[in-house]
Amino acid sequence: MEQDSITLFRCCKKIAREMDANGILLEGDFSAVEQLRMDLRNFFCYLAISDGVVNKEEIRYINKLLEYEFDEDTIIDCIRRNKIGDRDFLSNPPLSVHYFMKDKNIPDVIYQSKYYDIRRLYYHTFQELGRDFIACNRRVEDKEIRSLTRYLLMLENQINAYQNFGEERVETPDSIPYRTKENPKDTEEEIPFVGDITEVPEEGYDLSTLMQELNGLIGLESVKKEVKNIVNLLQINELRAENGLKKAPVAKHFVFTGNPGTGKTTVARLLSKIYCALGVLSKGHLVEVDRSGMVAGYMGQTALKTKKVIDKAKGGVLFIDEAYALSNHGPEGDFGQEAIDTLNKAMEDYRDDLIVIVAGYPDLMEDFIDANPGLKSRFNKTIEFPDYTEEDLFTIFEHMCREQDYHLSASGRIRLKEVLGKMVKEKDENFGNARDVRNYLSRVIERQANRLVAAASVNKEQLLEITVEDL
What we know:
471 residues, two-stranded antiparallel sheet
């Protein structure tokens, strides 16, 4: 389980306990804590059956997080009794949402120095736990992603209904984290930016150094070749311009397709620097966002929020991860399409000093490109990021070890190759690649710590070495 999702869940449970302490009880006669627990149970069951199989890892996840004691028979019975597989399941929002919408006495929650309105914290908890849940068995099916998207859209619409109608209206501009203690207003200046920015060093960029960095990436030979082709064409275009010749067309906006952990963000960051070193971009920074950084809760605010992201990206590269989430084809009232249309216009308006890269799973990215007729002509270059090989993963593991002052024993190297070989052999189309290796290393380090704590004394070499037992 991811730590961030667990922390959000604990925040929600704490708030629910405060509601119970305040004596708030809805017609369902369940406490806020128990209703939240049951709604999350049904949510996980809905995701579990989306691919037609409820596996042991999913049952274990539910039992561990929510303290149930399900086995295969009892969870199937729970799904049947609560009609989770019925067609109209999504027509009935979770009852716990009413607790979080109605209680006005609970203050904002501070988490990682950011203020979370409890209404949006509730949504974000389902979002992060849902992502964590569908990845718990290291296989993420397209059907699971679509089911998660549909559920979150239903939840978002329910929250927006509270915010937009009657005395329950709450003046909040967008998804969390979104506000300071002051009351936000519907102006572009006061809608905060939610994303990451890679700053540009004062000394600028040197092309030869950047190409060395590109060549130093582990694996990704086909991706490196694509980038080198682009660099060569840009350099030749400069020579053509110096000789009074027309420049050949060069792709500026890209679709990066591939499974998680294949280096898409790393290559996007390199591309932004390379385009700057070649004079195509004025700054060369990278602005990284996802749906939450572009979509707001009210009509018109999404355009402002997306424009704010674009303004920060001008002169560099705007990298939109999981861009397909913007085109989830939900019912009228979803504002992802508003973000897409705003983005499409900006790509034309700032075509001389803005590059946009969208990333995600191959099939789902097709839906995104089809969401606006102008996108297909603008995103005319797709770069596919292949899964890492067993040898690549071994090199990545060793590199991560060195970064954290660890190294493998001789027998540990042999055992690691066996582990990674099995990992690659059993992978599916949603293999986590370097992300899986990073998670595995974290577990290995925990096991090493448990082993060493039990020892009578520990020297420096023991602190450094990872053994077969740890692997």
